[in-house]
Design a protein that fits this description.
about 375 residues; binds flavin mononucleotide; eight-stranded parallel barrel; alpha/beta
């Protein structure tokens, strides 16, 4: 393991802002907005939300920073999802990269992969199915080609890591550890574990915990682990990953699906199976985040069908501290940066100093401690 270092990306972070818990409110890192006229209403989280003011003041500061742990403090909570924004460099001409909260780059493996047979992508109602198959040049080429450019950006780049064994994940991580330009690791554990008959790491709490713990031991980089929705109960898996030392969870990866070829004599995709993404998966992603937010205390970054500000607000309400935009980028690469501006405007409209005031408002109130009579009181 190389030397421990901090990845700090905002002035607030450099000033030593505290790590943010998943659903609890924290103090804003900047001065709160001045009080406005109007009766205060109480959000379910207990935070004060003022009714919309009559006059907007665009100069009012809004603190959109997000602390994902281990010094990874993002300037804002809008990230781009792995596999939908390449290595970031491809979008440099169309997007002001440095205005993003973070970039999760394409899935990276130990050795180069040519990906799955074609066709690999098809449109579906409200989304798409893809079976790219983790096509990538391998970790060494990724570092050689992109890390120097990433190091010059203000936006942190989180490298999405995939593998077929615990040893694979550890080795890829080891080669990324200490590389300037690599701000964190996101583990894509929706991959078959060849040592366990091809069972995905993500669907088994013990395997998910094992791979997380092994990677944790290999690096001091901030470690995010990406949950799969293709499970019966996500909570024990999320807990196992949190207990194994992940700094944050990202949720969700794609849902397994198939499409049928024209003529109906075979499945359409060359790999038969594909991953469903886009607006169609949003209700499932919301449910996963809602459940996980009540099961763990580490930050959750939500992904799944974000196409507009209302989606961002919904994910915050069920306990996410940040979101990733994926499939929607194919239609409009400028969407993520626009969402940053719209979220700030929405915070001003609501009269809250930070989007963090909007986190967890739709979650059930935590149960109070048992009463002296031993009867649990649920308000
Ligand atoms: C074309 C494509 C490629 C993807 N590649 C990866 C990948 O390499 N690693 C990963 O963890 N997720 C990958 N994903 C999943 C996305 O990061 C995201 O979790 C999922 O698409 C749901 O978000 P969305 O509905 O906003 O697209 C990919 C998704 C798409 C559409």
């Amino acid at each position: 393991m190389k030397q421990k270092r901090k990845v700090v990306t905002t002035p607030a972070a450099r000033a030593g802002t505290k790590r943010m818990p998943t659903i609890r409110r924290i103090r804003p890192a900047i001065a709160p907005a001045p009080a406005r006229p109007g009766r205060e209403v109480r959000a379910r989280s207990g935070s004060a939300v003022r009714p919309p003011p009559d006059v907007q003041d665009d100069r009012e500061p809004v603190d959109l920073s997000v602390d994902l742990g281990r010094g990874l403090v993002l300037a804002n909570p809008v990230l781009v999802a792995s596999g939908t924004f390449g290595y970031g460099i491809e979008y440099g001409d169309v997007v002001d990269i440095d205005r993003l909260g973070a970039i999760c780059c394409k899935g990276t493996t130990l050795r180069p992969r040519i990906g799955n047979p074609t066709p690999r992508v098809t449109e579906t109602p409200g989304g798409m199915l893809n079976s790219i198959g983790l096509q990538n040049p391998g970790v060494d080429a990724v570092v050689e080609k992109y890390a120097r450019t990433w190091a010059g950006w203000r936006v942190p780049v989180i490298v999405n890591v995939a593998g077929e064994s615990v040893a694979d994940y550890v080795e890829v991580t080891r080669r990324l550890d200490g590389i300037p330009g690599v701000a964190g690791i996101e583990l894509n554990i929706s991959c078959p574990n060849v040592g366990k008959g091809g069972l995905q790491f993500a669907i088994d709490a013990a395997a998910a915990g094992e791979v997380t713990a092994a990677v944790r031991r290999a690096t001091e980089l901030p470690l995010l682990v990406k949950l799969s929705p293709n499970v019966a109960d996500i909570r024990p898996i999320a807990r196992a990953i949190a207990d194994a030392g992940a700094d944050a969870l990202t949720a969700i990866n794609t849902l397994s699906g198939i499409a049928v070829a024209p003529g109906r004599l075979a499945p359409l995709l060359g790999n038969i199976y594909g991953g469903l993404s886009g607006p169609a998966v949003k209700p499932i992603a919301l449910r996963v985040v809602y459940e996980v937010a009540q099961a763990v205390d580490i930050p959750i970054v939500a992904i799944g069908g974000v196409t507009e500000l209302a989606d961002v607000l919904d994910f915050l309400a069920v306990g996410a501290v940040a979101i990733q935009v994926g499939t929607a980028i194919f239609a409009d690469p400028t969407l993520p940066v626009r969402l940053v501006d719209e979220l700030a405007t929405e915070c001003r409209r609501l009269g809250v100093p930070s989007h963090r005031d909007l986190v967890g408002t739709a979650l059930p109130k935590r149960a109070a401690p048992p009463s002296v009579k031993g009867v649990e009181y649920r308000p």
